[in-house]
Automatic annotation (TrEMBL):
The lineage of its organism: Bacteria, Pseudomonadati, Pseudomonadota, Gammaproteobacteria, Cellvibrionales. SUPFAM superfamilies: beta-lactamase/transpeptidase-like, Lysozyme-like. Its main location: membrane. Residues 161-332 form the Glycosyl transferase family domain. It comes from Zhongshania antarctica. Residues 423-677 form the Penicillin-binding protein transpeptidase domain. One of its GO terms (molecular function) is peptidoglycan glycosyltransferase activity. Cell wall formation. Synthesis of cross-linked peptidoglycan from the lipid intermediates. The enzyme has a penicillin-insensitive transglycosylase N-terminal domain (formation of linear glycan strands) and a penicillin-sensitive transpeptidase C-terminal domain (cross-linking of the peptide subunits). PANTHER family: BINDING PROTEIN TRANSPEPTIDASE, PUTATIVE-RELATED, PENICILLIN-BINDING PROTEIN 1B. This is Penicillin-binding protein 1B. Residues 66-139 form the Bifunctional transglycosylase second domain. Pathway: Cell wall biogenesis; peptidoglycan biosynthesis. Gene3D superfamilies: Biosynthetic peptidoglycan transglycosylase-like, DD-peptidase/beta-lactamase superfamily, Penicillin-binding protein 1b domain. It holds the Pfam family UB2H.
Length: 764
């Protein structure tokens, strides 16, 4: 009996231990699940309760101002409207539309918050003449002073993930988009609880029939969770987290809140390294229009992209994109939202993309310059998340002309030299605004920005500083002062000898200053610089706006100093502005995401060099392009169009430069090879070609000819330097600082008939 009892007791103990283990495992599983659910819940709440999305700072181009007398052609106005995504319609009945009848435009302007305040949507009438705006009227037909189009977005300051989006509230999203999205991606969105067993079963069946994955069963909520919280890892563990988090999302948030988050988060394409998120930005990216201005076919294309933005990329795979769009339209017809005839008509429509590629309308070099200025005033986090609006003077029309001039010139030059690179900076003479920047021969691609970062010897572009330092001493120097161009040996601080030579390997004896600069004589310039003093020349570089420390050595007189094109632009901007220095400006105002003004960047010009001395230098630079090393400019520009400029070539023709200005724009162009080997191009045979082509297409104001205080003009003999008359041989009409003109008269006596002709011209 004892043994039996012992056996029974053992069996009972064994039975009890298995039950205990089961209970413990169940409890452990429950704890794990509790922790898992708590983790998922925390992730969901943490994602949707905090500020949901980073809003990068947006960078805007200048708005096109329509004012009576403004220089603008009808073609340019229509091109600008096209760039902004305005649609040409017979009936101008909504913002973002226009019509044109000859030189008459009717434009329905979009609402926009400018730096100076918000403007509502409004309709205007614009009459154009051949080259200017004739008159602007409001919708009542009254003449108004001016109007301006909404500016173009040219880039932004993005967070580390390079995500970008235009935030929309659900109320701002077109109903057509919301209904199409739900119909195509999740028909049971408003009835399921985060996951849809019916959709999963349907997808499994379709995939089994096809023998591959042709359909997904994810709800919009699951897609949102995957995009915002989880990675793209393919595993059962991730799918489990996705399902649980989707259910928890539905428990905590309304359907409207989820749908609003989805339309702002969904990934819909790529622009360079910028990820396009949300339908608001996608409308701009593909159609260059606000979402509310899209038609049904365009909305269907965007909804179709949800399935695979890369696979259905309309630029790379237009037929795939069109087929996918038509499938979306077909689903709308199946639901009775379209008739068979309407479906057929919509499916015949082209994709109507606004651009030729994802990179059209992208200007990375200029935006890079803007970012650098912003970084001095704002923290990176604020720039990446606060939705700041940055207003710049960037001019897309001028940028396109600069790019066109660059491409055209490189096509001709690369037959002689492969792998040529280029950089260009364009400013407005009257303001110092930077209006266009090219950072390389592929200007649409971000990368090494040569306009800002390529430090290269500037060669003869340094010479104007040498001559200006001399001309700023009118008691010693004038444009007629003779300087020797005979060989010279100059001692460096380390005891070595510097022996400059001219490009033509010749010396030219005694030459006047204006001739030495116009023909870029190295020896004469070196002698002049040493006479004036290296310290005075160095001081002149700094006064003109060169902030980089330069070595005070003789070779810097001929441009051994290495500067970036943007730094050269600062120097030549001061020369173009008659000796008034102002920092180059790329931002004129900043507002917050609600349009409230945060900062202005007014220009405060400062006279740093005598305008009289600069006027004399400008005369010599005019001569440079008329008779000297830059005369190739007039192979393209009209012969009577006044511009001033200077060629630059570094040792062994490694760098080709040209810098110059008209009355409206100043431009600096550099050409060279990234490996710093010889290009075989001088400033005249390389960079000048780009400069002249750009100026021929962009400039409408030649250099003004006006008298300057402290300057007097005299007719002089260009050889002897003595006073002369207009009818005399070798006579030149030249400027002199007051009191520095020659007093001795040459031997050219006025002939009676010429004197009589002169008097008659005066009194006629």
């Amino acid at each position: 009996m004892v043994k039996k009892a012992s056996k029974a007791s053992g069996a009972s103990a064994a039975k009890f231990s298995w039950w205990g283990l089961f209970v413990k495992l169940s409890l452990a599983f429950a704890v794990v699940m509790l922790i898992f659910f708590a983790y998922c819940d925390a992730k969901v709440r943490g994602t949707f309760d905090r500020q949901r999305y980073e809003q990068p700072a947006k960078v805007y181009a200048r708005p096109l101002v329509l004012a009576t007398g403004a220089i603008l052609t009808a073609y340019e106005l229509e091109s600008e409207l096209g760039e902004l995504g305005y649609s040409n319609r017979r009936l101008v009945d909504q913002p973002g539309s226009y019509s044109r009848q000859g030189d008459h435009f009717t434009i329905y302007l979009r609402p926009f918050s400018f730096a100076d305040g918000a403007q509502p949507a409004r309709k205007i009438e614009v009459e154009m003449s051949a080259t200017t705006v004739r008159v602007v009227r409001n919708k009542l037909g009254d003449r108004i002073a001016e109007e301006q189009l909404d500016p173009m977005v040219i880039g932004g300051v993005y967070p580390g993930r390079h995500e970008d989006r235009i935030m929309l509230s659900l109320a701002e999203a077109p109903q057509m988009l919301l209904e199409t999205l739900v119909q195509v991606e999740d028909q049971h969105f408003y009835s399921h609880f985060g996951i849809s067993p019916r959709s999963i079963a349907r997808a499994m069946l379709a995939n089994i029939k096809a023998g591959r994955t042709v359909q997904g069963g994810s709800t919009l909520t699951q897609q949102l969770v995957k995009n915002t919280i989880l990675s793209n890892e393919r595993s059962l563990w991730r799918k489990a987290k996705e399902a649980v988090m989707s259910i928890l999302t539905e428990m905590h948030y309304s359907k409207d809140r989820i749908l609003e988050a989805y339309i702002n988060e969904v990934y819909l394409g790529q622009e360079g390294n910028r990820a396009i998120h949300g339908f608001g930005l996608a409308a701009r990216h593909y159609y260059n229009r606000p979402l509310e201005e899209l038609n049904l076919g365009q909305v269907a294309m965007l909804v179709g992209l949800v399935k695979g933005p890369s696979y259905y990329d309309p630029w790379r795979h237009p037929e795939r994109a069109k087929t996918r769009r038509n499938i979306v339209l077909g689903e709308l017809e199946e639901e009775g939202w379209l008739t068979t005839q309407q479906l057929a008509a919509w499916q015949k429509e082209p994709l109507e993309l606004a651009k030729t590629s994802a990179l059209a309308g992208v200007y990375p070099a200029y935006v890079d310059l803007v970012r650098r200025q912003l970084s001095r005033d704002y923290q990176s986090k604020e720039l990446q998340t606060s939705g700041l609006r940055i207003f710049t003077p960037f001019d897309p029309v001028l940028q396109r002309r600069a790019e066109k001039a660059t491409v055209k010139s490189l096509q001709r030059l690369e037959a002689r030299q492969k792998d040529l690179e280029v950089a260009m900076v364009v400013t407005k003479v009257n303001s110092g605004d930077v209006v266009a920047v090219i950072g390389g021969k592929r200007p649409k691609y971000a990368g090494f920005n040569r306009a800002l970062d390529a430090l290269r010897p500037i060669g003869s572009l340094a010479k104007p500083a040498v001559y200006l330092a001399a001309l700023n001493q009118p008691n010693q120097y004038s444009l007629l002062t003779k300087v020797s161009d005979e060989p010279v040996s100059i001692s460096n601080a380390n005891g070595s000898q510097w022996r400059p030579s001219n490009y033509d390997r010749k010396s030219h004896g005694e030459v006047p200053l204006h001739t030495a600069l116009a023909h870029s004589y190295n020896i004469a310039t070196a002698r002049l610089g040493m006479q004036v003093g290296l310290d005075k020349v160095m001081a002149m570089f700094q006064r003109l706006g060169v902030q980089r420390p330069l070595l005070e050595v003789p070779s810097m007189l001929l441009g051994s100093a290495e500067l970036a094109p943007i730094e050269v632009a600062a120097m030549y901007q001061t020369l173009a502005a008659d000796g008034r220095y102002t920092p180059l400006r790329t931002i004129y105002a900043i507002t917050d995401n609600k349009g409230e003004l945060l900062a202005r960047y007014p220009q405060k010009p400062k006279q740093v060099v005598s305008s009289a001395a600069v006027h004399l230098l400008q005369y010599a630079m005019l001569e440079t392009v008329r008779e000297g090393t830059g005369k190739g400019v007039y192979q393209v520009l009209p012969k009577d169009y006044r511009v001033a400029g200077k060629t630059g070539t570094s040792n062994d023709t490694r760098d080709s430069w040209f810098a110059g200005f008209a009355g409206d724009y100043m431009a600096v162009v550099w050409m060279g090879l990234d490996n710093n080997t010889s290009t075989g191009l001088t400033g005249a045979s390389g960079a000048l070609m780009v400069w002249r082509q750009f100026m021929a297409e962009a400039s409408t104001e030649q250099m003004p000819f006006s008298m300057v205080d402290g300057v007097e003009y005299q007719w002089v003999d260009g050889i002897s330097g003595k006073l002369s008359q207009s009818w005399c041989e070798n006579a030149r009409y030249m400027p002199f600082m007051s009191g520095s003109a020659p007093s001795e008269r040459g031997g050219c006596a006025p002939e009676p008939e010429k004197v009589w002709g002169w008097f008659r011209s005066v009194f006629d």
